[in-house]
Description:
- By secondary structure, the protein is mostly beta strands.
- It contains no helices and 11 strands.
- It has strands at 4-7, 10-12, 18-24, 33-39, 46-52, 59-62, 70-75, 80-85, 94-100, 103-104, 108-112.
- The strands form 2 sheets. Strands 2, 4, 5, 6, 9, 10 and 11 form a 7-stranded mixed sheet that branches. The protein has a 4-stranded antiparallel sheet with strand order 1-3-8-7, with no helix packed on it.
- The radius of gyration is 13 Å and the shape is globular.
- It starts with a strand and ends with a strand.
Amino acid sequence: QVQLVESGGGLVQPGGSLRLSCAASGSIFRVNRMGWYRQTPGKERELVAVINRNGIPNWLEYAESVKGRFTISRDDSENTVYLQMTSLKPEDTAVYYCTMGNIWGEGTLVTVSS
């Protein structure tokens, strides 16, 4: 059974950067849609960024709150999706989940605090 493993979360100061990675433990055949979501206590999980290769170039979607600061990318040869986060704000603090197709990771905590 394929599992997704996120890494790269942690504590960072406001204005700092982090790069999240999500790797599939097994082979995922032609997953078009990969993405990142986040969730804070008491709130619903929200979309952060999606990359869909059902088209050339890849179709990208970002939450308004992260546009210009976050960048999603993928390496299909490694079954990995990334989220480069810059200019981080305290309101970016959340558990970040990756998804490939209908498979979800267990999440990685990002804390933005001074």
